[in-house]
Automatic annotation (TrEMBL):
Pfam families: GST_C (PF00043), GST_N_3 (PF13417). Keywords: Transferase. This is Glutathione S-transferase. GO terms for molecular function: transferase activity. Residues 79-199 form the GST C-terminal domain. The keyword Calcium does not apply. Gene3D superfamilies: 1.20.1050.10, Glutaredoxin (3.40.30.10).
Length: 199
């Protein structure tokens, strides 16, 4: 049984989905206001995960690569160029798209002047939309980010797409990406993860 520390609907939800897709048992723990959480995750960020041996894992990409390799998942290509491409898109999600959304969250919470907030958030949202266009370009050639099967990159992107509802500015997502997101949201593991984060 894995222990997974999450914030409801945060990026940690992708790990919640992945553990289910890998047929692993998971105890989902709400990290919000959890005393001592920084002794598990020094930055205070989720996801954090503890395995049955007591090994502690933080940082989404490291957790995903660990789980895929440990559970011998076909999602992680063995051939070097394919593996590098998979990691490229994983880090596109985690280190390009996610920080672009983080800027929106940051501006939404710290900018108090309404006109300044509208301007800065519009610029930040344009960057997020630009990144969704990169996803759209990829999905114009194939149904999912890794080919014809949903993979963890699709799941991560679908989790981020759910954040659009929090902002008073428009993020544009193309039709192919919207179809991919709908398929991810229909996955039983995605639905189960959503339920498990209703604390
Ligand atoms: N570098 C970390 C960042 C994770 C991250 O930004 N998590 C957000 C939720 S999506 C979080 O916990 N933010 C609250 C905080 O950092 O205190 C990773 O990739 O796992």
């Amino acid at each position: 049984m894995y222990k997974l520390y999450v914030r409801p609907g945060a990026c940690s939800k992708a790990i919640n989905v992945l553990l289910r897709d890998l047929d692993q048992k998971v105890e989902v723990i709400d990290a919000r206001n959890l005393e001592g959480f920084k002794s598990i995750s020094p930055t205070g960020a989720v996801p954090a995960m503890i395995d049955e041996q007591g090994n502690v894992f933080v940082e989404g990409v490291a957790i995903i690569l660990h789980l895929l390799e440990k559970h011998n998942s076909a999602m992680l290509p063995k051939e070097l160029l394919k593996k590098t491409d998979f990691i490229r898109w994983l880090t596109f999600a985690n280190a390009t798209m996610h920080p672009a959304y983080s800027r929106l969250f940051f501006l939404n919470s710290v900018v108090k002047d309404e006109a300044e907030k509208a301007n800065t958030m519009k610029a930040a949202a344009a960057k997020v939309s630009e990144y969704w266009q990169i996803v759209e370009d990829k999905l114009n050639k194939q149904r999912y980010m890794g080919g014809d099967q949903i993979n963890i990159v699709d799941v991560w992107l679908a989790v981020y797409a759910g954040w659009n509802a929090y902002f008073p500015v428009e993020v544009t997502i193309g039709p192919k990406a919207k179809a991919m997101i709908a398929d991810v949201q229909a996955m039983p593991s995605f639905k189960a993860a959503t339920e498990s984060e209703k604390f």
